[in-house]
Write a structure and sequence with these properties.
The chain is of the alpha+beta class. It has 2 domains: 5-67, Alpha-Beta Plaits, CATH 3.30.70.100; 72-183, Orthogonal Bundle (Arc Repressor Mutant, subunit A). It has helices spanning 15-27, 48-58, 69-85, 97-105, 109-120, 124-142, 147-153, 159-170, 174-189; strands spanning 5-10, 34-36, 39-42, 64-67. Strand 2 and strand 3 form a beta hairpin.
Length: 195
């Protein structure tokens, strides 16, 4: 079972406070598994934009967000994964994500990795693989970049290495997603065409 994420809220003193917080989160469409005095429980770590939106919504109501250290660490790691594997990172020679995450968060990689795995129910390595595969799919379908270009952008050693990992992860070849792109292009070039 996945761990729950707790976000602590300063200033909640009564049942009306719980109702106000529940309504605010409902308006923001942020799923929560529980709200008690001083605490929101969510299924997964919230993104920085979600946290900012909650902060903006709750501050005028007199509440202050207090995140626990593990939740913040997981969010920081995910943010770093996004920065590094988002498609515009300049990968140095002998690149190791573990070095960057340790240096950026000023913690031992094993500690970071263990906290991440415990909180997410998935290893950090697996999370990164899944993240990169989703990025590959996105680039294959929505850009006209070659497999080599995509491999370079996402830190794979080669197009062949990308293809192998992609096939291992998804059970599909990258060409399947290129076909989806061609289908989308055909539809946009022949909008009146009906089959």
């Amino acid at each position: 079972m996945l761990s729950a994420y707790k976000i602590f809220i300063k200033g909640m003193v009564c049942d009306r406070c719980i109702l106000a917080v529940r309504e605010a989160l409902h308006e923001l469409q942020i799923p929560v598994t529980g709200i008690t005095l001083g605490q929101i429980t969510t299924v997964s770590a919230l993104s920085e934009p979600d946290m900012d939106a909650i902060r903006e919504k709750l501050t005028p109501l007199g509440f202050t967000l207090l995140e626990d250290k593990k939740t913040r660490l997981v969010r920081d790691v995910k943010s770093l994964v996004d920065k590094v594997y988002g498609g515009s990172y300049d990968f140095p020679d002998n690149f190791k994500f573990s070095d960057i995450v340790s240096r950026t968060l000023n913690k031992d990689y094993t500690v970071i990795s263990n906290i991440f795995s415990e909180a997410e129910g998935i290893t950090l390595e697996k999370y990164i693989k899944e993240y990169r595969v989703e990025k590959v799919k996105e680039l294959l379908v929505y850009s006209d970049e070659t497999l080599s270009d995509i491999a370079f952008k996402l830190g794979y050693s080669s197009g062949a290495h990308l293809s192998r990992q992609f096939k291992d992860q998804t059970g599909l070849n990258t060409s399947h997603f290129k076909e989806i792109r061609k289908s989308k292009q055909a539809l946009t070039h022949h909008p009146g065409h009906q089959s």
